[in-house]
Design brief:
mainly alpha
Length: about 170
């Protein structure tokens, strides 16, 4: 909807892309990228261990674990160190992704809380309007779009009215 609103205000394609779409796509893209990076790290290490990934002179954690097989009994730390590096690397990358996801969720919850507060203020203002209008004898005309609560407001004013002399006529 924000794209349609920007288009209605005369914004061009580039402005809509940079000002409206890019900020809304950046967060989910960072989360998806960081979570996929851990998968890629595990995939590369697994393929290198099997001999299908990065080849010998290039260092790889999978190659290091494969090369440490003969030393598992005498020097297990030779295999444990690259395995721990894979574990910590994947964990760190996933932790960054989860932190970004939590940050986005927090911002979303904050926006929902602000919307609920606004709705509460509007309801309080409506209650105040009902109280003030019900105290007067002046005729009341309630206008608004479909679904905005005109009927509910008119009934509340009518019910609150001390004398109930005003006819309730929907418009």
């Amino acid at each position: 909807e924000f794209v349609r609103a920007a288009r209605a205000l005369g914004a061009g394609h580039l402005r809509i892309l940079l000002r409206h779409l890019a900020p809304n796509v950046a967060g989910p893209l960072v989360v998806a990228t960081t979570l996929a990076a851990g998968d890629v790290m595990l995939l590369e290490a697994g393929l290198s261990y099997l001999g299908l990934g990065v080849q010998a002179p290039t260092p790889s954690w999978g190659n290091m674990i494969f090369d440490a097989k003969p030393y598992l009994v005498t020097a297990p730390w030779v295999a444990v160190a690259p395995g721990a590096a894979i574990l910590l690397g994947v964990f760190a990358v996933n932790l960054v992704g989860e932190a970004k996801r939590a940050q986005e969720k927090s911002a979303e919850l904050k926006a929902q809380a602000e919307a609920a507060q606004k709705q509460h203020r509007e309801a309080f203002c409506s209650a105040e309007v009902v109280r003030r209008v019900a105290e007067t004898d002046a005729p009341v005309l309630v206008l608004g779009e479909t679904g905005t609560g005109k009927d509910l407001l008119a009934r509340a004013i009518h019910d609150r009215s001390a004398r109930r002399t005003r006819p309730l006529v929907p418009v």
